[in-house]
Amino acid sequence: MRRLVSLFAALCTAVGLALLLPAAPAGAAPACVTAWNSSSVYTGGMTASYNGHNWYAKWWTQNERPGGSDVWRDEGVCGTDGGGTTPPPTTGFVVSEAQFNQMFPNRNPFYTYAGLTAALKSYPAFATTGGETVKRQEAAAFLANVHHETGGLVHVVEQNTANYPHYCDARQPYGCPAGQAAYYGRGPIQLSWNFNYKAAGDALGIDLLNNPWRVEREPAVAMQTGLWYWNTQNGPGTMTAHNAMVNGAGFGETIRAINGALECNGGNPAQVQSRVTKYQQFTQILGVPAGANLYC
């Protein structure tokens, strides 16, 4: 009898202790890996913790905040380390602001990332068509050509002022209402000629024929004109630069759409090489291959 009482007392003690102790969590979060560092370079497969989550890098990245770029895959809640602040919202553009700054380290303050991303709304198919590789290749191709045209987004307007009076085609029925010398090259692809200002303005819903100066005063308008040409104009080529990239014709055909025989087919191989080299650099930053048909 005494033994049964002892066993009962022991059981009650054990139950009491169990009631006092917290239950072990089911499926507890894994420990946080090393905290994300904005100055570190991460290659595909590396991990970092940020804002209470573990993150997996899908490709090369530097200074792209986890949660603010699709380079990072959320691996779920982790322990309490790996702090930081709430990540900023992503723009949805395949080029992050950090990558944009890396591509254009000496750019004119006029050319802003915000201006570029605002302009994207005018051409939603740009850098969103096809698979992830094609999207990044198109963005790299556009920005590489822009880099070449503007000396690294340094020049907002055409530097040779002697050319300014030449860009008025008076044969057009609408003439040159802003003045004969008002339609010089401006913006990331150096929009020029009164008829191009008219066409771009009509497409964008902006009166650029009467007020071409908006292209050198408003960052978003400047970028809109570059995207207008890229997405809608064959130029001296046989297809738009957008179609060249999404249909697999290759980077070389984007050069042809912009400058045709002035550079292609031996016209100026050094200029072509300059564009190709920059495109290869930008695709590397974005973690994708450059693809075939780089030259024209």
UniProtKB/TrEMBL annotation:
Keywords: Disulfide bond, Hydrolase, Plant defense, Signal. Gene3D superfamilies: 1.10.530.10, Carbohydrate-binding module superfamily 5/12, Endochitinase, domain 2. Residues 1-28 form the signal peptide. Residues 33-75 form the Chitin-binding type-3 domain. Pfam families: CBM_5_12, Glyco_hydro_19. The keyword Hydrolase applies. CDD domains: ChiC_BD, chitinase_GH19. InterPro entries: CBM5/12, CBM_sf_5/12, Glyco_hydro_19, Glyco_hydro_19_cat, Lysozyme-like_dom_sf. PANTHER family: CHITINASE 12, CHITINASE-RELATED. This is Chitinase. It comes from Streptomyces gulbargensis.
